[in-house]
From TrEMBL:
The keyword Transport applies. The lineage of its organism: Bacteria, Thermotogati, Thermotogota, Thermotogae, Petrotogales. One of its GO terms (molecular function) is ATP hydrolysis activity. Residues 7-242 form the ABC transporter domain. Pfam families: ABC_tran. This is ABC transporter domain-containing protein. The keyword rRNA processing does not apply. It comes from the Bacteria. It comes from Petrotoga miotherma DSM 10691. SUPFAM superfamilies: P-loop containing nucleoside triphosphate hydrolases. Keywords: Transport.
Length: 242
């Protein structure tokens, strides 16, 4: 098997209530690669992204899948879910809202089994790169950020990336979540993602190609559940000028 091939999708179709919403998808994702899943609203980006962590069946009734999604050669449906979702870190915009139901201490305890004030030097440096170290710089700041309602959306997205990284995943999937960053955060997060892609794969789904075309190598253009184009960004822009 090609060791660089991390995810392989073979003739994947997804039906909900007998409606074919993803149509015969074939796709490979390799190590060290940033792949963009690009397409308009309802193109099927989330269905495709979630199929890589076997999540659609858990979320929706009346779903039927044909074809296969392989992670390192193994069908994702036969991989233990907890392991699958720590090695493929999937995040999407509802995470940003759902985190409001917990406090910072609770999230730290659940995810890392430590208190926010007990982070290591290494973790602090990571938070610095993600632009959120100021929150962890002293007790009074930690106190004022204990409630996530006091965080900006950008800070919460950075924090979600921090938590995913702690589990050392081999693949990151950002399902539309990075579209919610402002321009200032965008540049820093993109630099950060470019740094961490070594030995990993990054999959970014977006409706806004121009935000990520400078860091991605490969693009899949989806429309109405079908792959319309798959290949290099340059090739895409030649065929489908923005
Ligand atoms: N649970 C569901 N029941 C019925 N149809 C669904 C369900 N989930 C998704 N769909 C349909 O599947 C299609 C693809 O949806 P999906 O959420 O994957 O699109 P998307 O490209 O991620 O869109 P967006 O950019 O708006 O997030 C849409 O037509 C959507 O209406």
């Amino acid at each position: 098997m090609d060791k660089n091939k991390i995810i392989e999708i073979k003739d994947l179709s997804v039906y909900i209530n007998n409606l074919k919403l993803l149509k015969n998808i074939n796709l490979e994702i390799s190590k060290n690669e940033i792949l963009l899943i690009y397409g308009p609203r309802n193109a099927g980006k989330s269905l495709l992204a979630r199929s890589m962590v076997a999540l659609n069946e858990e979320l929706f009734k009346g779903i039927q899948t044909t074809g296969q999604v392989l992670f390192l050669g193994e069908d994702v449906n036969s991989i233990e879910k907890r392991y699958l979702r720590s090695t493929i870190a999937y995040s999407e915009p509802t995470f940003v809202d759902n985190i409001n139901f917990l406090t910072l201490s609770e999230v730290f305890n659940l995810a890392l089994r430590i208190k926010p004030s007990d982070i290591s030097q290494e973790q602090y440096m990571l938070l610095e790169k993600l632009n959120i170290a100021h929150i962890f710089s002293n007790h009074s700041s930690l106190k004022s950020y204990e409630n996530f309602e006091n965080w900006t959306i950008g800070d919460k997205i950075s924090f979600i990336i921090f938590l995913s990284l702690a589990r050392n995943p081999q693949v990151f999937i950002f399902d539309s979540i990075l579209d919610h960053l402002d321009d200032f955060m965008h540049k820093d997060i993109k630099d950060f993602l470019f740094d961490i892609k070594e030995d990993r794969s990054l999959i970014i789904s977006t409706r806004n190609l121009s935000l990520f075309s400078d860091i991605a190598e490969k693009i899949v253009f989806l429309d109405k559940g079908e792959i319309i184009y798959k290949g290099s960004i340059e090739g895409f822009l030649l065929n489908f000028p923005l």
